Amino acid sequence: MAQLPVEILLVEDNSDDIELALHALRRGGLANRVEIVRDGEQALDFLFCRGLYRHRSLAQPPRVVLLDLKLPKADGLQVLKELKSNPVTRPIPVVILTASREEQDLVRSYQLGVNSYIQKPVDFEQFRRTVKELGMFWLVINQPPPQAAFQVG
């Protein structure tokens, strides 16, 4: 039986934020196909189908990447830069979901091609609502890039 493609790649190293995000997505009926990675290196391996994720296919990218900035091994900006500099992975929508309030992170993220930048709300209920709305927008409302967008040439 073929495995269904991942719809959301959640790149987050904070266990509490992971649990909150999954709770919000479950309540919205959107948590069925979420892959969680806890550092930037794992994120790149997943996105480029290498290492533990070599069985994946670039032909089935996630519908959206929810990316924290402050990550071990490779930070979120490094992940974003590699993702958006490769013509095969460039069409994958990336939403920065971070606690960073640094203007330079915001500016650099947009320079690198982020699709959206959201500061994590401190309030539990607001964080839950934000993640649920993100999931609804990117998986239900937004029209994803066609498969042809992921082919080079």
Order of helices and strands: EHEHEHEHEH
Count of domain modules = 1
Name given to the CATH architecture: 3-Layer(aba) Sandwich
Give me the oligomer status.
single chain
Main β-sheet, spatial strand arrangement: 2-1-3-4-5
What is the structural class? Answer: alpha/beta
What can you tell me about this protein's structure?
This protein has helices spanning 15-27, 40-47, 76-85, 103-112, 124-141; strands spanning 8-11, 34-37, 64-67, 94-98, 116-119. With 153 residues, the protein is an alpha/beta fold. The protein has one domain (8-141): Rossmann fold. It is globular, with a radius of gyration of 15 Å. It starts with 7 loop residues before the first strand and ends in a 12-residue tail after the last helix.
Task: Give a quick set of tags describing it.
153 residues; alpha/beta; 39% helix
Ordered list of secondary-structure elements with their pairings:
Elements: E1 8-11, H1 15-27, E2 34-37, H2 40-47, E3 64-67, H3 76-85, E4 94-98, H4 103-112, E5 116-119, H5 124-141
Parallel strand pairs: 1-2, 1-3, 3-4, 4-5
Helix pairs in contact: 1-5, 2-3, 3-4
Concise structural overview:
The chain is of the alpha/beta class. It has helices at 15-27, 40-47, 76-85, 103-112, 124-141, and strands at 8-11, 34-37, 64-67, 94-98, 116-119.
